[in-house]
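Practice problem: predict the structure.
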Amino acid sequence: MRDVLFTTENLTEMVGSERPLVRGLFNHLMPLVGSAGFVQANATARMSQVALGYRGSPMSESHGPAGHLHAGDRAPPIRVRTKQAGRWVERILLELLNPSRWTLLVVGQEPDAETDHAACGPGRDLIDVRAIAEPEAGDDAAEFTTVFGRHGVLLMRPDGYVGFASGKGGAHNLSRYAKRWFATEAGDVPS
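Answer:
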């Protein structure tokens, strides 16, 4: 967020500058720079806040990499398999996330009792648990493994960012994370 504000402030300063040199450079160079494809793509991602990341945030906690996706990263729009009505179906990951709830993604395995128990800590009424696995074949399967690894757990925030990520066996750390960030009683405030 600081990066967005810093960039916006600097741009506003340049656009509104009354200094002749800055104004002349801006008026002559910006059309050239702004027409470059990589600048347009980067600017669009930054302005829409899709390029934001929260890896250093206190609410982002990673415990051993499961794949390239870490706590603080935004969920990618990739294909995954998930269980619906007892059978595996392919869906886009973002379709599985509920914007009013947290979602625990259990990667490459059925959620077990330990993971369910960890998710059922103080935040249990706010968390949906979903098993996800790689798509059947092709490029989607390779991308899934690169992003998620073979096994792990990820707690997705309602805004589509990863709050907690761990390789296999992360239930204990997940339980600690849930106790830290989900109030157990009405007056509790996370520290």
